[in-house]
Amino acid sequence: MTKVYALFFLLSFFLFLYAVLVVPIDSVTSAHFFGTTYVLSERMVCWMLSLTALVFAVLYLFTKNLLYSSVWSRMHLICFIFLAINICAFSFLERHYFELLNHKNGMTSADVEAQSSFSRISEFFVGGMFILLIMQLLYPLNLILGIIVRKSQVEG
Length: 156
Fold this sequence. Notes:
Helix content is 75%, strand content 8%. By secondary structure, the protein is mainly α. Helix 1 runs antiparallel to helix 2 (42-63), helix 1 (4-21) packs parallel to helix 3 and helix 2 (42-63) runs antiparallel to helix 3. The longest helix is centred in the middle third of the chain and has 33 residues, at 70-102.
């Protein structure tokens, strides 16, 4: 059986290193949800991802015997990895796009077209992020189902 908790610990470490070594201190990212734009520190977002991976590592370490399926645990790990990649890639793409836009003096029609293209790409990233966030419910489902199955085996 794969030790998913060790992989979550490793992922947490790599996300922390990415936040410290790669992400500029003053970079910000924005998240658009239901017509509201939230502006967040990109480094803080990476640290929160690292902390979340660490929390999942500890949860998997202490509840590994109660879980229903190791396959669901691996699926959860893969979805969390893709969620982290999605968030970090979107932040990088947004930072790179706006740096290029800031170096120009005026907006041309090509810039307006590029901005609408970025808006469509942004919707794609947010949609993927939403699906991957829903997939994070695999852990509680795995735990609840494991507890129910174990309880029914003890009673039966």
